[in-house]
């Protein structure tokens, strides 16, 4: 399937990112670095012609705050869509990653085994539905795992070819004609 041109941003670093905590559906404030991450994304986007783009953010605080900074003076209106929220980690929300069990299967991650979590199959369905509803080019402000899933759906496994395939705070992914470009 062909998708419209996309720019995908991950929210800036949060307190819990810095502490290596699972956030999922919970929120923590952006750090000073997170504020700089969002400002850097704004500098990147300011050099682009985004006149025909819509601007859509996850409604979660860290993403919406990032959107406000990264899209200041660029977007007249930022819409939110719940399908851009981060993968749910259920009972592990707010817990330190180092205190949680690691999967025994090397092809799984903590996100996949989190009790009462969303899992990748449901995340994929949610992201696929979101992409199917897009009518034209868009700038998306989302989260690391959700960004990764959207990028895989749009460009395939080459989305993970970059060293920072988790969605890179302070970076912008440009997806066009089945290709992914990392803008830093």
TrEMBL record:
Gene Ontology MF terms: phosphatase activity
Keywords per UniProt: Glycolysis, Isomerase
Domain of life: Bacteria
Active site per the UniProt annotation: 11 (tele-phosphohistidine intermediate), 86 (proton donor/acceptor)
Keyword Isomerase: yes
Residues noted as binding substrate in the record, renumbered to the chain: 10-17, 62
PROSITE patterns the record matches: PG_MUTASE
InterPro entries documented for this protein: His_Pase_superF_clade-1, His_PPase_superfam, PG/BPGM_mutase_AS, PGM_Phosphatase
Gene3D superfamilies named among the record's database cross-references: Phosphoglycerate mutase-like (3.40.50.1240)
GO CC terms of this entry: cytoplasm
Name of the protein in question: Probable phosphoglycerate mutase
């Amino acid at each position: 399937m062909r998708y419209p041109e996309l720019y995908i941003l991950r929210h800036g670093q949060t307190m819990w990112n810095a502490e290596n905590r699972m956030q999922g559906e919970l929120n923590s404030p952006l750090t000073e670095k997170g504020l700089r991450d969002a400002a850097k994304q704004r500098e990147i986007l300011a050099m682009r012609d985004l006149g025909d783009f819509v601007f859509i953010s996850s409604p979660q605080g860290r993403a919406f705050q990032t959107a406000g900074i990264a899209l200041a003076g660029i977007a007249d209106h930022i819409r939110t869509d719940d399908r851009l929220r981060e993968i749910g980690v259920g009972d592990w929300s707010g817990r330190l990653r180092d205190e949680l069990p690691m999967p025994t299967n090397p092809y799984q991650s903590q996100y996949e085994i989190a009790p009462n979590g969303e899992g990748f199959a449901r995340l994929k369905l949610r992201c696929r539905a979101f992409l199917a509803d897009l009518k034209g080019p868009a700038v998306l402000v989302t989260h690391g795992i959700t960004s990764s899933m959207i990028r895989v759906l749009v460009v395939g496994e080459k989305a993970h070819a970059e060293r920072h395939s988790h969605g890179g705070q302070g970076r912008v992914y440009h997806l066009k004609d089945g290709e992914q470009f990392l803008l830093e």
